[in-house]
Description:
By secondary structure, this protein is of the alpha/beta class.
Amino acid sequence: MILVEDMLHEGNKVIDESRQGEPIMAPRPKSKNGRKLFLESYGCQMNFADSEIVVSILSKEGFETTRVLEEADVILLNTCSIRDNAEQKVRNRLVHFKNLKKNKPSMVVGVLGCMAERLRDQLLEEEHLVDMVVGPDAYRDLPNLIDEVWGGQKAVNVLLSREETYAEISPLRLDSNGVTAFVSIMRGCDNMCSFCVVPFTRGRERSRDPESIVAESRDLFERGYREVTLLGQNVDSYKWNLSSKGEVKDPEKETVNFAQLLEKVALVHPDLRVRFSTSHPKDMTDEVLHTIAKYENICNYVHLPVQSGNSEVLKRMNRGYTREWYLDRIAAIKRIIPDSTISTDIITGFCGETEEQHQDTLSLMEEVSYQMSYMFKYSERPRTLAERKFEDDVPEEVKSRRLDEVIAVHLRIAKNGTSSMLGRTFKVLVEGVSKKSDQHHYGRNSQNTIMIFPKGDTQKGQYVYVQAISNTSVTLIGEVVQTEEG
Length: 486
Ligand code: 5AD
Ligand code: SF4
């Protein structure tokens, strides 16, 4: 399936300003120095990681970030297209910005991320909501595009790339707790799940040079960070070809796969925790699981989206596995990493889903005992295989009722899982002050359960041992029994 080629011709284009009904542009400022950037992000962790690359690129041009919308010279929205309601949220924000712009016409409003490619013409030319539209592979071009807008034009670059990984750009950490950080290891997706818009909005899959991933992780550790989460749409298909750079001659050692990358990052320092997301059931190998088991600092937690517990629905979703295959992968996780937790993504009311098929999802949830589930109603997305091949025929109220049932099962199972941890003592990385009480710190155990405990003399970024005393459905409340040194 060739996707990117379709999109290439739509790439870099500047739209003439002399169009009716468009916002009035201000004259171009002399320099970007001291200019204020307001950036808001929606969607997945990948998008938030991208925002840190955007800020890095623009800060080199002299931009400073601001949290005060009214003082912004440039407003950027990093957007998500995954479900219709994600797009609606962004639209409402854009209408708000358009109103703000009436008082400050020099303000540049730009859309980044997944909605850029999808809704370019609509946002720029039909609704005149924005001045600039920039796709996820075009962020290096942002300084030029902003100049174009300041020059009185509207600017677009939604070109998708086969190579861009922003490998050498050091992300500028936003809203950081100084302890945990995301590290992007690949971009795009080649899976073509029939419900998913991502291959169209983020393009073809490509992996980032492992050396740059290790260097970024090491740099984070040296700056006091104690946890990295390696990010990709499907981390299990991470693959770097060393020979393409002429680095290795031995054909047996020509590639770095995900398990090997994980090991390289784990070896940066034993006090640097490593997490990753997202695994794909069709590709997750025992080698990855053995690597997790081998290193204490690779966390015992796997996010393994199932989407549905019924093999026929999975086939229509083009997921590449059956219920049995998925359960075999779960058995492998439980066998190889016995003290681990598992989380998932579930879609209710996918095209043609019957009541029995929905029941299969509920029974699978019971069988696996997920610690966390991210649950969604199916939302048809333009251009996807499902939109072209199947009818979105499950009524809205049935989708909602099934979602409620899935949520109810999740809450019960998750609470049982959390309760089963009571009495145990866990090594916790202190991440910061609890939102609910400034007398408490919070952190996570290796299994990704949030633990809250009295601050005492614990410090952010320190490892402490916390005994679980009580719990809510997904949080443990505990007492520190030993600090790192003690
Ligand atoms: N409708 C509902 N949920 C979706 N997801 C992806 N596409 C859709 C869609 N069209 C969910 C999947 C995926 C998660 C990131 O979002 O569960 O794993
Ligand atoms: Fe992330 Fe997917 Fe949303 Fe794009 S569509 S921002 S990849 S969640």
